[in-house]
Amino acid sequence: MSHKPGTLTGHLGREPARYHGAVSTPVYRVSTFLMPDLETLEDGTAPYVYGRRGTPTSESFTTAINALEQGAATVVTPSGLAAITTAILAVCRAGDHLLVSDSAYFPTRNFCDRVLARYGVQTSYFDPCIGNGIDALFRSNTRAIFCESPGSLTFEIQDIPAIADVAHRRGASVLMDNTWATPLYFQPLAYGVDLSIQSVTKYIGGHSDLMMGYVCANPSHAERLTHTHGDLGLFASADDLFLALRGLRTLSRRLPVHEQNGLKLARWFSARPEVTRVLHPGLDSDPGHAIWKRDFKGACGLFAIELKPLSHAALAAFMDGLKLFGMGWSWGGFESLITPAHIVRTARPWPGDGTVVRVHAGLEDVDDLIDDLGQGFERMARLL
Ligand SMILES: *Cc1c(COP(=O)(O)O)cnc(C)c1O
């Protein structure tokens, strides 16, 4: 496949000739596929057998993802979190030990600490910047390493090839939540990851109107992934699959705008006296910048800032009056968002003492976003 991503995302998984020339694969709302005869019913050779096991709409999506990720099998789930839990369940069994990055998405930690623990899988957390030092944390029963790079809220970049190298020498699997970069800006499987996880809810959906996830496996993990997914009874809705495909068609054109707007906001924040630190791996000054530059093709629009310690009233004065930034717990849509970040760390304490605020740069004109934030700082100043 020699075409560039901007071409691929427009064409992958489309077969208009199968659908009367319709450019996009239609929404197949179906539970029951009728079989032509008893033999086909019994031998299971029909291309589609039951709604949960795959439809033309889901096949269109998974075909596109397998090509983008260069993977052997993709499964779809009703949310990104369900993709995370499916990937973990595909590799762990009772008695195993799992290593999870300390800056993983918080609900990932809840699943490990509350659900996995009940089924006899122990989790320990590691410094996201540990690199090949992860070797020292291995136990005889360590089954898998769960990475997320950059990490949620604090954006540490992980040395995935170094971690994967140690894991594979020790016979463990590597799982990675790649929602921040999407398969266009980082290719987990090419860097040694076995199961690549994506919250489709974010950039692939891109319009804040669907919940969905996927896991894509390399050949050695394809069978355990598809069996676990099937046994758990997971799938995604026909409408959400359709919207995910629609989002995918413009992903390669939206991401560079998110990236440019995000970098421009990050640089602007860096020069503000109210800001003590900007957490964005695309900035030269960021501790993860060298590895990010080595491994990633770009940055999305999500990053964080740390404000000098301030009162809750001053923070509210800044945030409440913003006209273009919404306050909501998601990201990856066309619109800009801002939320305070609550950082939980158990492997290594978070060094900052200020208020961390997460920013999502949407597709608006960035100068308008800067004006909006500047007015916010003026309101804040009156209360400092
Ligand atoms: C939002 C998010 C998820 C979960 O996705 P949902 O679709 O909301 O379940 C997983 N990982 C990261 C990094 C996220 O930000």
Question: Would you mind describing this structure in some detail?
Answer:
The mean pLDDT is 97. The chain has two domains: 5-247, Type I PLP-dependent aspartate aminotransferase-like (Major domain) (Aspartate Aminotransferase, domain 2), CATH 3.40.640.10; 251-381, Alpha-Beta Complex (Aspartate Aminotransferase, domain 1), CATH 3.90.1150. It has helices at 5-11, 38-43, 56-69, 80-91, 106-115, 160-169, 182-185, 222-232, 238-270, 289-295, 312-320, 366-381, and strands spanning 73-77, 97-101, 122-126, 142-148, 173-177, 195-199, 213-217, 275-279, 302-307, 337-340, 355-360. With 384 residues, the protein is an alpha/beta fold. The strands form two sheets. A seven-stranded mixed beta sheet has the order 1-7-6-5-4-2-3, sandwiched between helices. Strands 8-9-11-10 form a four-stranded antiparallel beta sheet, covered by helices on one side. Bound molecules: pyridoxal-5'-phosphate. The site of pyridoxal-5'-phosphate has 13 residues, from α4.
What is the tally of beta strands? 11
- Helical content stands at 25-40%
Going across the major beta sheet, what is the strand order? Answer: 1-7-6-5-4-2-3
Which term fits the overall shape? globular
If classified by CATH, what would the architecture of the largest domain be? 3-Layer(aba) Sandwich
How far the N terminus sits from the C terminus, by CA atoms, comes to 57 Å
Strand percentage lies at: 15-25%
- Count every helix, treating DSSP H or I runs of 4 or more residues as helices: 12
Order of helices and strands: HHHEHEHEEHEHEEHHEHEHEEH
If you average the pLDDT, what whole number results?
A: 97
Largest sheet: 7 strands, mixed
CATH fold description of the largest domain: Aspartate Aminotransferase, domain 2
How many structural domains in the coordinates?
2
Determine Rg (CA atoms, Å): 22 Å
